[in-house]
Amino acid sequence: MVATRPTKNQFDEIRPGVKAPAKDTILTPRFYTTDFEEMANMDVSANEAELKAIIAEFNEDYNRHHFVRSDQFDGAWDHIQGETRQVFVEFLERSCTAEFSGFLLYKELARKLKGRNPILAEGFDLMSRDEARHAGFLNKAMSDFDLQLDLGFLTKSKKYTFFKPKFIFYATYLSEKIGYWRYITIFRHLEQNPEDTIYPIFNFFDNWCQDENRHGDFFAAMMKSQPQFLNDLKARLWCRFFLLSVFATMFLNDIQRKDFYASLGLDAREYDIEVIKKTNESAGRLFPIVLDVEDPKFFSKLDECTGHTAAISNISQSGQNKVLQTLRKIPHIVAIGTRLIGLYFIKPIRVDGDRAVVR
């Protein structure tokens, strides 16, 4: 059993200065594995030129000197106290875990595909380089708050979710693109409102999000080489599913942590709406359909889900026995599921051959 003790941040540690990983829930970042044999045998020749062009851009390594801490970090965290400190550490942990998850998946893909699918192997290797930088930079930022993650421990202790390659493509393409819009939206807001820049890490988001964008382009190019992932009825159904999954997960997570966004001068709901709309628009350049996020029911049903999510969180903290907690949670879980199913069946928007939406 891992020994834990309270810290001044009210977080548990696995040893002094090393934060115990957050408990896995449906909303926490996941670690993934896939069918490496299927990926190795994938013929990408139909879009080889675009893949090679993106790899050439990766090799330029525009951000090789970007993730370097400067004296702007000296003492920059001293004023971040109380609840803001708590939510800030949680933000850094979630972000670090997500970036490290990408690193592990991409590095393993590069290793397994080396010598068998050299184009994909090189692309994944270069993306793993970027994700390692991101995770390391975030973990170093956590140390400013007297905590870090043991990434080796995380590698061994975290549960891994198996996704077939096509599902990895859908999910990771969207996570990279939504990551771009999350980072650039925060950066642009703070650029216009510098008084809300409570910590220097946000000054790095402009260049940082370009890594996310390029990674998304690489996954888009891979999917274009496999037209069956985009051009039939099953593809349209899966595109709807992953768009909704990514959007709902972000929305439910962020509304729970609205205090973090408030500390940056942002309204979490308005921020999420903007990011979702931009990501949906970006997906329309690749996917055959996008979600109708302008339908009034879309965000109203997500709002209802956040109420039930908050109720589930309150039940978890009630101190009641686990069986009673589970029984009390069931109506809320059913309510969330019902609303998400309703969102899935809102008529999507088709995208024509010129990548324009057709209502």
Q: Kindly state the percentage of residues in helix.
A: 55-70%
> Which blocks of ≥5 consecutive residues have pLDDT under 50?
1-8, 353-359
Elements, N to C (H/E): EEEHHHHHEHHHHHEHHEE
Distance between the termini: 56 Å
The fraction of residues assigned to DSSP E strands is: 5-15%
Count of separate DSSP helical elements? 12
Radius of gyration, CA atoms, in whole angstroms: 21 Å
Secondary structural class: mainly alpha
Number of separate strands: 7
Mean pLDDT: 90
**Strand ordering within the main sheet:** 5-6-7
Main sheet summary: 3 strands, antiparallel
> What does the overall shape look like?
globular
What does it look like?
This protein is 62% helix and 5% strand. With 359 residues, the protein is mainly alpha-helical. The strands form 3 sheets. A 3-stranded antiparallel beta sheet has the order 5-6-7. Strand 1 and strand 2 form a beta hairpin. Helix 3 (82-113) runs antiparallel to helix 4.
Question: What descriptors fit this protein?
Answer:
two-stranded antiparallel sheet, three-stranded antiparallel beta sheet, 62% helix, 7 strands, mainly alpha, disordered N terminus, 359 residues
Q: What is the fold's blueprint, element by element?
A:
Layout (H helix, E strand, L loop, with lengths): L12 E3 L2 E2 L11 E3 L2 H5 L7 H13 L21 H32 L4 H26 L7 H7 L2 E3 L2 H28 L12 H20 L8 H24 L1 H6 L4 H16 L5 E2 L5 H21 L5 H23 L4 E3 L5 E2 L1
Parallel strand pairs: 3-4
Antiparallel strand pairs: 1-2, 5-6, 6-7
Helix pairs in contact: 2-4, 2-7, 3-4, 4-7, 6-7, 6-8, 6-10, 8-10, 8-11, 11-12
